[in-house]
Amino acid sequence: MRTVNMRICCITLTALVSLFVQAIPSSDVYAGESLVPSRTTTPAIRPDNPDYDNHIVMWLEKYGRQIQQTRDMPESELLFVGDSITEHWPLAGYAPDIWQQFYSDRKTINVGSGGDRTENILWRLENGILNEISPKLIVLLAGTNNTSRGDSPSAVVNGIEAIIHSIHRQSPESKILLHAIFPRGKDKHDVKRVNNEKINALLAKRSKKYAFVDFTNINAQFLDSSGQLDKKIMPDLLHPSAKGYQIWAEAIENKIKFYLQE
Fold first, then answer.
1. Backbone φ and ψ of 132, nearest 5°
2. Is residue 84 a contact partner of residue 114, using CB atoms and an 8 Å limit?
3. Partners of residue 177 on adjacent β-strands
4. Which of 121, 147, 165, 254 has the fewest CB atoms lying closer than 10 Å?
């Protein structure tokens, strides 16, 4: 009975969100009741982040704005997908000048969303982000929030692979520039950094299966020779500063030029 009730809950919530998506063209504000996620064994169905318990409507509003972006720019060629590390880049207080410098003259969309784990990114991709666009290149950085929850390396890599499969099914001509998860914590002994490095090692191996995936690891460029992470690059030892975003942009510029055929 409990399982049946949970399935009914899943179906109901999916239906509510579907109605929300259909209403986006006229408004990017969701005026309905707060959607509080229930925990299930199928987190990719909908947002499933404890941090969102009181902010589901805000999360959906942002998702709605992202959908509208794709509708406004169906000719987009470059798509950045990820969590807050991706989302913050063009925002005031982070590195909007660097974003403008590298991406304003390109048909670029950023659909990063703070706090997202692999299943949350997957949900957004499965619910409209790629409906209107087929970018030449998708820059993907995901997984560090799964590490924050304590997910195992194999579980995180499975989540990232699910994202890769979703992208390729919906936009088979797109190439994916898959990033190793960025370093976090002060040094190489940080527990969460160790977990991310294990994830990165698995990603490097598994990504070789996909001809459309280019796995890139630029992490050494954020660190000093002893593996220390400078707070001038990541002030909270997780999110890049303007200097960190400059390093990121310069590190992938040649690959972006290549895939965009510039």
1. -105, -10
2. yes
3. 139, 214
4. 254
Q: Are 180 and 221 in contact (CB under 8 A)?
A: no
Give yes or no for a contact between 247 and 222, defined as CB atoms under 8 angstroms apart. Answer: yes
Q: Are 79 and 109 in contact (CB under 8 A)?
A: yes
- Show the tokens assigned to 65: 């704005």
Whether 236 sits among the annotated catalytic residues: the reply is: yes
CA distances from 252 to 71, 169, 247 (A): 26, 25, 9
Residue 53: the pLDDT is 57
Dump pLDDT digits (tens) for 150-190.
888 998 999 999 999 999 999 999 999 999 999 999 999 99
Per the annotation, the verdict on 239 as an active-site residue is: yes
189 catalytic? Reply is: no
Q: Name the catalytic one among 26, 189, 226, 236.
A: 236
**Of residues 76, 84, 166, 174, which has the active-site annotation?**
84
Among residues 91, 76, 43, 36, the alpha carbon closest in space to that of 60 is found at: 36
Structural domains of the chain ordered from first start: 74-259 (3.40.50.1110)
The predicted-structure confidence for 110-156, as pLDDT tens digits, reads as follows 999 999 999 899 988 988 999 999 999 999 999 999 999 888 899 89
Q: What is the mean pLDDT of the chain?
A: 84
